[in-house]
Structures are given as C-alpha cells and as structure tokens.
Fold this protein.
Amino acid sequence: MFHPIRRLYDWVLSLAHHRHAPLALFLLAFAESSFFPIPPDVLLIALALGIPARAFRLALITTIGSVLGGLAGYAIGYGFMASAGQWILDVYHFHEQFEKIRALYLDYDIWAVAIAGFTPIPYKVFTIAAGAFDMDVWRFALASLFSRGARFFLLAWLIHHYGAAIRVFIDRYFNMLTLLFMVLLVGFFVLIAMW
C-alpha cells in the first residue's frame, strides 16, 4: 500500500482504541463518502470484533454517517463542482473515471449509485457525480441508504455470527465477494427488465 495511505490506514485502525470510537466511525464514514480515501469498513470491523454484540449498532452508525457524507458529496457536485469537486478529482486522479460515470448515470441512474455504494468502487466519485449530473436527491439518498446499509450490516452480521475468524476471510475475499454480489444484482435487474 502506498506509504502515506498506509499511515492513514494505521491511524484509522488506532481509532478503535479511542473512547470516542463510535463518533470517529461516524466521522470516518461521513468523510469517506465525499473525500477521504480510507473506507469505514476498516474501523467498523475492528470495533465490531472488539464487542460483536455491538456490531449492528456500529453498522447503523456507519450507515448514517456514510449516507450523510454521500449527501455532502452530492452537494459538492451540485454546487461546488468547479472548485471543490475538481480539487477532489485532481487529488485522486479520478477525471477519467468521472467521465465513465457520466455514461453509467445516463444508462443506469440509481443502480450506478447502488452498485458503487456496496462495492469497493470509490463511492465518493459517484456521490459527487450524482450532484454534478443533477440526479434526483431523494432517489440518490434511497439508493445510498440501501446499498451502504446492505454493505455495513452484512459486515456486522458476519462478525456477529462468526467473530474474529471472519476477519481473515473478509480481508482476503472482500473484492471478490462484492464483485459476485454486483453480478448477482445486475443479473437480477436484467431478469426484471426481461419479465
């Protein structure tokens, strides 16, 4: 992992030992949805492993923070694309991806948000793009709530039921699992469209 990103990752993990860890989780989820590079899953997993009985409460905190952060990303794209939005795209070198996302929004609308919200795809680019492309804010919020909630509550359920053993599995296969889920989700909507 790139050295400064690795330091950020380690710093995020260190927050698990802080007495205000749930607040840190909320703020991390908020920031990641609009500009921060480290996903909240890292801290959610660390906190939930500490007390598996709190996993679902922590997933709720993460979901709320992420959806509100997504709305902040939407606001950046809607009202500040020429300044803050461009700066974020510059920092992460997401200009090419942003143009591809434009095509996804034209073709798939809220499903683009839902897939990005669940998978490791950089969600922040989709939140900013939703505002820049003037997507209906309520549809955006619902797609974000559904996809982010599904992602974080799935992690909470796995930790609650399988404990520390699931961490290695999640770390090793997270990208493959989310890709599989995305394929199943797209297949489901293709079947509905053909019905």
Notes: The chain has a mean pLDDT of 81. The chain has ten helices and no strands.
